[in-house]
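Methods: holo model generation. Sequences were used as deposited, without trimming of termini or removal of tags, and paired with ligand SMILES retrieved from the corresponding compound records. Each pair was processed once, and we did not select among multiple samples. The sequence and zinc ion SMILES for this entry were:
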Amino acid sequence: MQPQVLGRLSVSKVMEMESGLPLPMVFPDITASDLARVADWCDYPGLADDPATSLMTLSMHSFVIALDGQNILIDACNGNCKQRALAEVHMLDTPYLANLAALGLTPDDIDMVMCTHLHFDHVGWNTRLENGRWVPTFPNARYVFGKRDYEHWVTQEEEEVHRQAFADSVLPIVSAGLADIVDVEAPTATHLEIGDGIWLEPAFGHSPGCCLIHAQAGGAPAVFWGDVIHHPVQLVRPELQLMFDHDPVKAAQVRRGLLARIADSDTMCFPAHFLGTSAGHVRSDGDAYRYAFVES
Ligand SMILES: [Zn+2]
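and the model returned the structure below.
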């Protein structure tokens, strides 16, 4: 897959794995007409005419931004060898680091890791197992975590799979002194600049503190929207309830607001779970939206 080049930015995708879940389990209110509407513009894997026989297929991947000699890794997938209270991601053994190497990068080459939020499938490769201990996978990187998510998982006890991930993939980074826990609600700005051309914006809803990551350097803007939008069907019905959203009402408002803002612009989108090239543009389509994937 070719990197997407936007001015001085170049963005590459690092695959971890693909998985699938029954579609109605994730979107309880989904209808056949929603699926027909997606089928108008996209033959998306897993979707059939009937929601009951459809799968929500998910890609788990990171993006690496190369900018002015720095390599910034966005979202860290599930990780290997992790004990998880969810069979699909328990004790994985994926070739993620080999896929990173195929881009010509070793873990030592990563200068910054940014997690859009602290769910288990976005923090896993922050650490790897070495002699029975969880150590930073990217020892030369600063790791950027949002304060609101960080504080949530310090105290919450309900969601076991996220709690496990926080313990083995976030806390060891803090102990190693590599974490920058940033307050995106600081009074100084709604946009928080992280280095040259990359900044965070609050997008709370899917998780208590999830953020958008924006990047722009001499070309079209890029947005890494994490899990604000999981699947193309959310473009035809942004209000569709998603079982993984922490605050479904807020999450839908954020989704609708983002789509309205970037539709029909040159903003290149980098969704955390779309299949294929993942990257693309949002186009308006009546009262909703469609997605135009980049070809390669
Ligand atoms: Zn996710």
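The helical segments are 23-26, 32-39, 96-101, 120-123, 147-155, 160-175, 233-236, 248-262.
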